[in-house]
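Cross-check.
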Amino acid sequence: MNVLVTGGAGFIGSHLVEKLLAAGHRTIVVDNESSGLRQYVPADAIYYNLDICDERLRDVIKEEKPEIIVHLAAQSVVPVSVRDPALDAQINIQGLIGLLEAARQQQVRKVIYASTAAVYGEPASVPIVEEMAGHLLSPYAVSKYAGEGYLAAYHHLYGIAYTAFRFANVYGPRQLAKSDGGVVAIFTELIRYGKTLTINGDGEQTRDFIFVGDVTDAMIRAFDKADNQVLNLSTGLPTSINQLIDELEQVARTRVAREYGPPRPGDIRHSCLSNEKMKQQLAWEPRYTLRQGLAATWEGYELEKPPGEK
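Predicted model, tokenized:
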């Protein structure tokens, strides 16, 4: 099967590309390397250094004729979306429209779309179910939610199937602390260099942490399942920041200094996404416990030096 992955040099995308190649799929990667790294893309993949807003993307899709497009490329930093909402909309909305137009013209069978838990805003209760979306607190949340609507419209008008995944807090090897901003990546890097961990608030705020291997498994499973569905992609388990640090200490076999500061303005207190719909639609269960995922993440950081480190 021909599969095109936008953002395929990034954190999630590069793991997905590895699995696709291992499964025998002809895999095409499109990435502008704004946060992805070419070195993360296996040599067997067909690679285009290209922005998703570039009109040449249509030529790539016409030339490569993918059956499936996995759309991971995005502007995903909330403060950037607040500072420059036009840029956010250009990448996340205009970029998606251009991709969907090319998919329509080339009769692509299905688009797998990376959405976000940001579409829930400050939830009234947890676990969060899919029907609770729409409390949009940032331009980023608006643009990703709009993307879900465009997918539904293109399915209605042109028959392009889709599955949209609202990611919980994804973590794993290759996540860049500076680019992706995931707390696991940030803490892992600080522990690696023996630095103090700064916690915003009392550390009892909770998040739903899901290992990247479980995320990529679910996306591949959706190639032939869950058509025209919007699904939470999560463990369904809340973990406090204090618990996360406790687990990291066990994995790294060291004690770390913790410094508590004031809560960060705008941060939600609790977030945990129900994955019941996901289980039903994809016959899927997360395989990695938090300890197992953190151990794999730590091992990845130990084996692979961050870019620029000698």
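The longest strand covers residues 110-116. The radius of gyration is 19 Å. Passed to J.P. for a second look.
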